[in-house]
Design goal:
Helix content: 10-25%
Structural class: alpha+beta
Number of domains: 1
Strand content: 25-35%
Shape: globular
């Protein structure tokens, strides 16, 4: 699955990890960084199915992050859960995700779901449930 951060006008919206952290803290990504634009930025995930010739776009609705910035930096590992909404059907899906530091200390996308303790997984699910119930993010689609 490929991910991108962009505004509704197609302007690049920043790095995915930075956007996921911002979303986890604020509940949204705010407006485009282009001075003249001000369209909402979105975190979009495109999922391509191997057995059919189509893709589905999902939009980030909430992020449950297990560690603080400092804890993630110290661990070199930043597990998260993403609550995604299919942009066509509205179906909501949970995507376990993580970033890890490479040999040079730079953050790199994880290739497999994160390994987390059951209690930590419950904590992240509770964060997603709270975000979904309280609708922390602004709805820019209207």
């Amino acid at each position: 699955m490929s991910s991108r951060v962009a505004c509704d006008q197609g302007h690049w919206g920043g790095l995915c990890r930075d956007a996921a952290i911002e979303f986890s803290k604020q509940g949204n990504l705010g407006p485009c960084r282009q001075v003249t634009c001000q369209s909402p930025r979105r975190y979009i995930v495109s999922h391509y199915f191997a057995n059919i010739a189509e893709s589905h776009e999902h939009e980030l609705e909430a992020v449950a992050r297990l560690y603080t910035d400092q804890e993630a930096n110290d661990e070199g590992y930043d597990p998260m859960l993403f609550l995604l909404r299919n942009r066509r059907s509205g179906q909501k899906l949970v995507w376990p995700f993580y970033w890890g530091k490479d040999r040079n200390g730079r953050w790199h996308v994880g290739q497999f779901p994160p390994l987390v303790a059951l209690d930590d997984l419950k904590k992240m699910i509770a964060i997603l449930e709270d975000a979904a119930i309280n609708s922390h993010s602004k709805d820019f689609s209207k």
